[in-house]
Amino acid sequence: MNVVFDFGGVLFRWQPQEMLAQWLPHHAPDAAAGQALALRFFEGYGGDWSEFDRGTVERDDLASRIARRTGLTRDEALMVIDGVPAALTPIDGTVGLLRRLHDAGHPLYFLSNMPAPYASHLEAVHDFVGLFRAGVFSSRVQMLKPEPQIYAHALDHFGIAAADTIFIDDLERNVDAARAAGWRALHFTSPEACEAELIRLGCLAESPERGSARRAEDFAHGF
């Protein structure tokens, strides 16, 4: 079975509210303000930010646009834009699943909405990216999830069939679009839940630790 991973929110932590609260505390003094600022800054990954993901707007232009519509200074906008790559830290549980799938012989690929400078950073810094046979970053093909054409392009680029493919993404709209294109797809909520689904689908064997924990839980409930 081919397994295709999203990056942000699946393999890498993506916590924009916490990030903005840390970097711009005077603009995000509490959770509500942080959430509101994140919505204005990233526009729900639409608008200017989606153009950055698509590769049709550059960093400096993006910073100017964000400053105009949020009231932040251009330097503040640039600080956030430039700080994102280092804030994308691996989710150890998902990296562990990636390695187990690789060891089990499943062909691995990625499909990620990712601005060009971030894509280059992740490829250069994280060795586990080398486990993928191939991948598609939105900024390099100027297409975005959940647009149907990016799923068709990915299948063609990877040389695989939709029916033999499982896609893992944290955004339901991307999962729905993959299913509409004929892929199997899992909505990622945690490494543990993802592991359970991959075991159910027969892609992974149950680990001894997980099996012991499940049997102990079943015993406690009288099964």
Query: What is the strand content?
Result: 5-15%
Total helix count?
Answer: 12
Number of domains: 2
Detail the poorly predicted runs.
212-216
At the fourth CATH level, what is the homologous superfamily of the largest domain? HAD superfamily/HAD-like
Following the backbone from N to C, one meets helices and strands in this order, namely EHHHHHHEHEHHEHEHH
The strand order across the widest sheet is 3-2-1-4-5
Write the layout of secondary structure elements.
Layout (H helix, E strand, L loop, with lengths): L1 E4 L10 H8 L7 H12 L4 H8 L4 H12 L3 H14 L4 H12 L4 E5 L3 H10 L8 E4 H4 L6 H11 L6 E5 L2 H9 L3 E4 L3 H10 L7 H13 L3
Parallel strand pairs: 1-2, 1-4, 2-3, 4-5
Helix pairs in contact: 1-2, 4-5
Structure description:
By secondary structure, the protein is of the alpha/beta class. The chain is built from twelve helices and five strands. α1 crosses α2 and α4 packs across α5 (74-87). The longest helix is centred in the middle third of the chain and has 14 residues, at 74-87. It is globular, with a radius of gyration of 19 Å. It starts with a strand and ends with a helix. Mean pLDDT is 92; it is low at 212-216.
